[in-house]
From TrEMBL:
Entry's family note: Belongs to the FliN/MopA/SpaO family.
Domain of life the protein comes from: Bacteria
Name of this protein: Flagellar motor switch protein FliN
Native source species: Devosia rhodophyticola
Keywords, sorted A to Z: Cell membrane, Cell projection, Chemotaxis, Cilium, Flagellar rotation, Flagellum, Membrane
One protein family per Pfam: FliMN_C
Subcellular location: Cell membrane
Keyword Transcription included in the entry's annotation: no
Domain Flagellar motor switch protein FliN-like C-terminal: from-to ranges: 4-73
Membrane-topology descriptor: Peripheral membrane protein
Length: 77
């Protein structure tokens, strides 16, 4: 078990994505809104080392924000 404790995994949670030219980004000011390609009802994507591993949803409990995994993605080769 101690061997597994030394393995590093980068976890990324993606709420949505947007593509825009850099000059638009540079002109944005405080409070600007970026429209994402998802709605508030769409599941978030959870990546481990840049590989999609699960979908999830935002959950708030006791003032803490967390991601609840709703479905795991199994990649078969």
């Amino acid at each position: 078990m101690s061997t597994l404790e030394n393995i590093e995994v980068n976890i990324t949670v993606e709420l949505g994505a947007a593509t825009m030219p850099v000059h638009h980004l540079l002109r944005m000011g405080r409070g600007a809104v970026i429209e994402l390609d998802t709605s508030e009802n769409d599941p978030m994507r959870v990546y481990a080392n840049n590989t999609l591993v699960a979908h999830g949803e935002v959950d708030i409990e006791g003032g803490n924000l967390r991601v609840r995994v709703t479905d795991k993605i199994f990649k078969r080769d």
